[in-house]
Predict the structure.
Amino acid sequence: MKRNHFLDLNEALQNPGKQLDFTIHTSLSQEEDVDLVNPIEGELSAVSTGNILLLSGQFRTRCVVECARCNEPIEVDVEFEMDDEFTVEGVPSCYGSDGFAHIVPEEEPEKIFDKNSLIPDGYLRQGLILNLPVQPLCQFGWEGDCPNARATKKHFAPPTHPGLVHLAEIAGDPKATEEGAE
Ligand SMILES: [Zn+2]
C-alpha cells in the first residue's frame, strides 16, 4: 500500500499539554535512497507546549545498505529514536474561540508537514537516513578474506576518524586511515 497518509496533530496544537500517540507502520512512499526489507514500525507521540511542538518516538526497520569495504548489499536491522521540536505560532483555540495555533513551516528537503498534519513518511525517512550505520560491514568484516573486496581491490584498515574515511577512499592509501596520521 503506497498511501501517503497524514497524521492530524491539530488536536495537540489547539490543546497544549495534550499528548497524541500514534502507531507507525509504513514502507515509505516515493522511496529512492533507502531500500527497506521490513516496514518502519514504532510509536510516535506529539505534544505542544503552546510555542513548540514536540515529536518523539522509537522506530525499527530492516533495510539494505552497502558494505563499507566491498560495496556488497547487506541487510541490517536499524532501531532509532527521534526527538524533534517545531515552532508553533498563534493562540491555541482552547484559550479563545477565535484562536488557532499552527506549525511554522521550515525549509526542509522534503515536506514533513501539511498545515497541522504530519507527513510521517517524510519525517521518518529523515530519521532513518540519519541513523543508518556509518560503516556497515558484510560477514567478512574489515579483516576477513572477503572475495568481494579482493575483486574490487579495496583493502583498507578500519578507518578510525569519519573525516579520514573519505580521504582514504580518494587517496587509496591505507595509512591515511591510521589514527593520528597527518
Ligand atoms: Zn564486505
